[in-house]
Amino acid sequence: MAEPPATGCLFCAIVAGATPAHVVASDGATVAFLDIRPVFPGHVLLVPRDHHETLADLPPALVGPLFDAAQRLARAVEAALDADGTFVAMNNRVSQSVPHLHVHIVPRRRKDGLRGFFWPRQRYAGDAEMAATAARIRAAVGPTAVE
Fold it and tell me: Of these residues, 43, 51, 102, 104, which one is catalytic?
């Protein structure tokens, strides 16, 4: 069941054509357009046409179409911009400037100045902490977590 456009959602307005954007691709399930504040030129945002705030909210039937489009766009951005690769990411709630699910596809070049992720890495206190954390996540995923 399609979600109605969210009132005041910038990305719903772009999908509807009410707000202009530099659209680079669209299909029945998704729309992709240039980010107005790119990490690098060619930074694309891919959104589902229907309003869903996070990946957890996305209906299972739309997961495949969203990631099929992300894969096509990652290839296209790399080819069109002669990039060495791409950074593909999404935020869920924290650091999500527009509360409409969106995938960032950012062209990357070796030595482009972007270092790994945008936050410092940490270490587990030891294998016991790592095992306990993994067990908590497996329990939350349910019986099909590891087969």
Answer: 102
